[in-house]
User: Fold these one by one.
Assistant:
Number 1:
Amino acid sequence: MRSILRRSMFGVLALGALIVPIAARAATEVRIMWYSDGNEGEVVRDLLNRFETANPDIKVILDTVPYKTITENLPAQVASGQAPDMARVTDLGSQAQYYLDITPYIKDQAYWQAEFPNTLQWTRPAGKTDGIYGLMTQLTVTLPFVNESLFEQAGVAVPGPKATWQEWATAAAAVAKKVNAPIPIAIDRSGHRIFGMAISMGAKIWDGDKVALVDPGFKAMTQLIYDWHRDGVMAKQIWGSVGGTAYRGATEEFANGQVVVYVSGTWQIAQFAKTIGDGFDWHAVPSPCGPAACTGLPGGAALVAYKTTKHPAEVARIMDYLASEPVAREFYARTLFLPAHASMLKSGIDYQTKLPQVKESLQSGIAAIAALSPLAYRVQGYAQNRVLFNPTISRLNQAISGEMTLPDAWTRISSDVQDALQAQAVK
């Protein structure tokens, strides 16, 4: 009898040993391709670990990749049908035709509509006016960062909140001359960074529904950047170090104290908190003014799902979790990101930082968002905005380097844009 009992107990234990790995293997795996500017990868992994604990039937694999992989490799994967289940992307419109509408799977559509009213359109395919195709993991805005220590050393006053672009250039040049800083103003070599300036200078971008890029306001913006390179306000080592439409930033130069004013965006705040800290006094300021506006350009990174996923319901559960107010609030607070969440923009975030530079920069970011032109939102939401950005960067750079005149660059930009739009229409 005892032998029979032992065999029965052994059988139960053996069955139990088999059941555990079978249950573990039964969890649905969802893969997310993710890049980070700062610590957001660590934060989201921590949050997803909690999600997995509460949802043991889902296993989330976070594939962390360089940003270059997102911009250069991911589009080819997506177009070939080899997309991951989800990815964190910044070029929102160009892949929109491949995004999954998660509306049928989420719990509370009204919540999403109420809390993300200005950004849901950014991930919708062209022509779509409804549907939920992505979650903005952060809202960003272009603006300048100031090395205030250099201003203090030079005895030059930092321009006020309504200062013009030219006033900032004059002040930055004066500082650089007095303290021997090599770069008065650096602007990311990116169409996204300079289109807020274009709108501020009076660019309309469209004539009704028709793209009409090169107008007096656009010319005024490009003339400024062209003149600043000729006058030494901007250094050719930033824009002139790469060609075509390649991106080039000045993050390292600013962190090393070589740049007086660096025009980039709020996504740099978390990085500067780490790389600069309180090494010198720095902070972001709201966008400078032109005759038409004082606007930057909004942007950000969105977590999207692809139509090719075999797990749409599980993907939507992950999206719902990350979009929920307590989870999103913690994510923003720990990553030092501006929220895309409407209620949190009003109520504020208790950011986890003691650095006054960071707190001031985040407040400048919120003020810059409040000042955004409706046209700036339209540019960011335009699915073909790369058609506007890329020719602007490549042709303007050719003018700066002396390969063509600035008027010739305007002509080529116009033709490049129209050719690209016609090619898109043929597809």
Note: The first strand starts at residue 28 and ends at 34.
Number 2:
Amino acid sequence: MAKILFVMTAADHWTLADGTKHPTGFWAEEVVVPYRALTAAGHQVVVATPGGVVPTVDATSVSPAANGGQDGADQIQNALAAMTELQDPVKLDEVSVDDYAAVYVPGGHGPMEDLAVDAVTGRLLALALGSGKPLALVCHGLAALLAVGDSEGPGPFDGYRLTGFTNAEETQGGLASSAPWLLQDRLVTIGADFQEGEPWAPHLVVDRNLITGQNPASSAPVAAEILKALP
């Protein structure tokens, strides 16, 4: 059995360009699907957030509209309720990468608010990348990569092929025009080779030990790739 670290946002909003706070958090599918796959294979999941704050689920992600109807919404809410790890996260600044076999960062717009600018997150992801262990991120979870390194010279993800939530998806989702910045644009500025797939379709990119998925639908292939990469 391996221990897998889920690095999750502690934010319950995303500050838009005009200063308003858009309610958000983590995206349910991006947590539930990998959690189910990893625990079904016998692995242990540990949740960590900045400050050990209990993470907030994005209400839209547990709605009938996002889950194919009320039955799907009930199922994903029940799955979250059964995840006791979400109610007792560890503090991110007390985490050692050495204790885990892989690191995973789910999305939702929450990481755009906190993980993208969190130095502790940045150091942890840099260590995970350098360790050779699987480092997996999906959708807006890729915002956490922006906290790695500094403005002097190329960062550790310079030249890596990766994917994440695209400008097209942000536009179709209705938030691009009010966003303070767009994830795809920012990932390009840190030197990443951004690989864009079709909007909303599963899209997985693997480069060395970095595993990335474009959107919520990519959660299952990302989880499968983590399992393949575990020792």
Note: The chain is about 30% helix and 15% strand.
